Amino acid sequence: SARFWIKLTDYYRKVLEMDMKMDSTGKVPTSSMPLMNKIRDTFESCVYKCRSVWLWKAYIVYVKSVTVDVVVSSMMVMSGGTNHLSAASSVLKPQQQEVYVEERRKVEGVYEKALEWVGLAMDAAELWRDYIDFVSKRWSLQEAIFQTLNLNLTAQGGSAAMAETGRKIIAMRRLYQRAVCVPMDLDMSDELWSELEAFEKSCGEISAQD
């Protein structure tokens, strides 16, 4: 059952937490890779069999813990423990910025697999909610990183900033439009529709400013 797999992977995760120490680049050390691969293989051997939203969410939490969470934690440590994204991102080196983008894509890939397998389940509303929040926070962090690159936007005519804004709008719009088409409880459905309407309104204001 899903509960059995959750207990098994929780055990592996606790062992991994004792073993894993991030290095200066924000990557997980090579010594922890065998155990990480074992946890990944365990999850992947069960999520496709049980078709449990709960199990997929546990898998996503695990993937986050060994990817983007590691990079963000290293940012906070290097910035003296600040929780402010702009301050924390100012200490990122180009290599770490690339690592963050790479790890974020891994998490989004797992979200997409989860939605493919259980995205239409009656209890999948929280999964859609989590994915939207993750993408939204990802853009907030990328914008903070973007602001620390000391780009001369005036000299570039603002083209870099406009391109970044355009990518954010497209990503968020597509995700909202997919989510509101999924049958789910009325409260969550209304919440997502309200957010989509507010999002489109804000996009219109951005276009008007341009």
Give an overview in words.
With 210 residues, the chain is mainly alpha-helical. Helix content is 75%, strand content 0%. The chain has nine helices and no strands. The radius of gyration is 19 Å and the shape is flat. It starts with a helix and ends with a helix. The model is unreliable at 84-90 and 147-157 (pLDDT under 50).
Task: Furnish the topology, listing elements before pairings.
Blueprint: H1 2-19, H2 33-50, H3 53-65, H4 68-78, H5 85-89, H6 94-118, H7 125-147, H8 159-179, H9 186-209
Helix pairs in contact: 1-2, 1-3, 2-3, 3-6, 6-7, 7-8, 8-9
Which keywords apply here?
single chain; 9 helices
- β content, as a range? under 5%
Oligomer class? single chain
N-to-C order of helices and strands: HHHHHHHHH
The count of strands amounts to 0
Helix content: over 70%
How many whole angstroms does the radius of gyration measure?
A: 19 Å
